[in-house]
Amino acid sequence: MLESQADKTTVAKRLDLRLYVRQPPMMLALLAVLGVMFFLAVAGLSRVYHAQREALGNRWFSRGVRDLKAHHFDLAVTKFRTALLYSADNYDYQLNLAEALIGLKRTDEAYSYLVNLWDEQPEDGLVNLELARIAAQKEQREQTQRYYHNAIYATWPSDQEGKRNETRLELIEYLLGIHAQAQAQSELIALEENLGDEPSQQQRLGDLFLRAQNDEHALAAYRASLKTNPHNQAALEGAGLAAFQLGRYPLAERYLQAAAADNPTDTEIADRLKTTDLVLAIDPFRRQISAANRDKIVVQNFEAAGQRLKACGVLSAGGMPGGTQPDLADSWTKMKPRISDQSLRRNPGLVEDAMDLVFRIERQTNTTCGSPTGPDLALLLIAKLHEGN
Predict the structure, then answer these.
(1) Residue pLDDT, tens place only, 16-52
(2) pLDDT for 220-239, tens place per residue?
(3) What fold characterizes domain 195-274?
């Protein structure tokens, strides 16, 4: 009887519980719990899925980077494209793909990627550098310089700060290539302020200043290089050339002599040194030269100018004017009887008159009779040295 009563009680409780569970609030709570559990399960599966895709993308990307470094551009392109299948918007994947495409000379495809990357990160140094190179290939000068400047002042990783100077050097080479000497000089002066004292860097700076036709800065850079490495053959030769072109012939002689001693078979150095020595030997206006020696030099120079006129057909063998420039020949013929050591000693003012005529002859024949050599080249350089005096 008691057991029957207990069973009835248990059954009643179960019925009450079922009824309770079927109430709307409880149903909602259970559904919510189930929903959360389902969401967490899906989120977990999604994370696993994306992690797997990311791992696969990184794996293909790493393989592509190895191929890119080895200049296997076609393989790199395939692997970067595969990596992008797993992460289509990955910035690094697209950038490296663009570089591989550039390696294959497929610049139009690379350009489309780079422009999109530039829109996303316009301060990226490498993106701007690659865009500058493509613009240079397309001969788009304005865009080339703009992208190069963007790259120079862009954001670079701390371990790639040297890229700024490298990029400026690349811009300078580009400007020299299109004969924009003035702009190249401006960039070189900016580079000069940020370049260290390492001898090879200073030598390269000097080489670039020479090509940009800034001999003063070139000489300074070469001398900075020679302070640390006084036997740098290229710097000695460069310093000699820069000093020569500046008309600083005693300094040019010193550097060229050192360069010739280190490299005696270089005919270009030897020829320039010979011309330098000749300029120093036949310049009658050099300081600390005796009056007697000066007069002898003037006589020699006057005779050399007459020989130049004769060689150009302006002066006949008999000393009379001929050819197409009788005025210079006539002036030389009239002055010749007065040009001697004795006459110059009696009349020192005649030195300047004689040398003025010599200089005019050398300038004019340089224009009409071809480039001079030997004493005539030296006299032309001396004429340039004393212009306006």
Answers:
(1) 555 555 556 666 666 666 666 666 655 555 565 566 7
(2) 999 999 999 999 999 999 99
(3) 1.25.40
Contact at 8 Å (CB) between 185 and 166?
no
Amino acid letter, 104: L
CA distance 75 to 82: 11
Report the amino acid identity of residue 135. Answer: A
Residue found under tokens 């004689």: 354
233/259 Cα distance (integer angstroms) = 6
Q: State pLDDT tens for residues 310-353.
A: 998 876 555 545 554 568 899 999 999 999 999 999 998 899 99
What's the mean pLDDT when you consider all of the chain? 87
Average pLDDT over residues 66-89: 91
Q: What's the average model confidence in pLDDT over 134-139?
A: 94
d(Cα 169, Cα 100) in Å, to the nearest integer?
23
Altogether, the residues listed in the chain come to a count of: 389
**Residue 367 tokens, joined:** 């224009």
Model pTM above 0.90: no
Q: How far apart are CA 306 and CA 318, in angstroms?
A: 11
pLDDT in tens, 241-253: 999 999 999 999 9
Q: Where in the chain is the domain with CATH 1.25.40.10?
A: 195-274
- Other C-beta atoms closer than 10 Å to the C-beta of 273 total 20
